[in-house]
Write a structure and sequence with these properties.
Low-confidence stretches: none
Strand content: under 5%
Order of helices and strands: HHH
Helix content: over 70%
Mean pLDDT: 97
Number of strands: 0
Number of domains: 1
Distance between the termini: 59 Å
Number of helices: 3
CATH superfamily: Ribosomal protein S20
Length: about 90
């Protein structure tokens, strides 16, 4: 339990930041899932649009420090590979 005023403020800030980081992570995962759903349904135009949106969200999440920039690059690379594979197959 925090005793000093500064420690109490730190607890308040950490609660707010954790909530914001969890929201950013959730929105990133939702964007990726919408891309995966469009890809699974075979809608390549929608998947391309969803890929652009998801890439932007992933970049923003990495920029804010919620995920590492290498993780962001890896996620985008894997999404792009799945999109290219679907375009070649279809």
């Amino acid at each position: 339990m925090p005793n000093t005023d500064s420690a109490k403020k730190r607890v308040r800030q950490n609660v707010k930041r954790r909530a914001l980081n969890r929201w950013r992570l959730r929105s990133m995962r939702t964007a990726i899932k919408s891309f995966d759903k469009a890809l699974a349904d075979g809608k390549l135009d929608a998947a391309t649009d969803a890929f652009k949106t998801a890439s932007a969200v992933v970049d923003k999440t990495a920029q804010k420090g919620v995920i590492h920039r290498n993780q962001a690059a890896r996620r985008k690379s894997r999404m792009n590979a799945r999109l290219k594979k679907a375009k070649q197959a279809g």
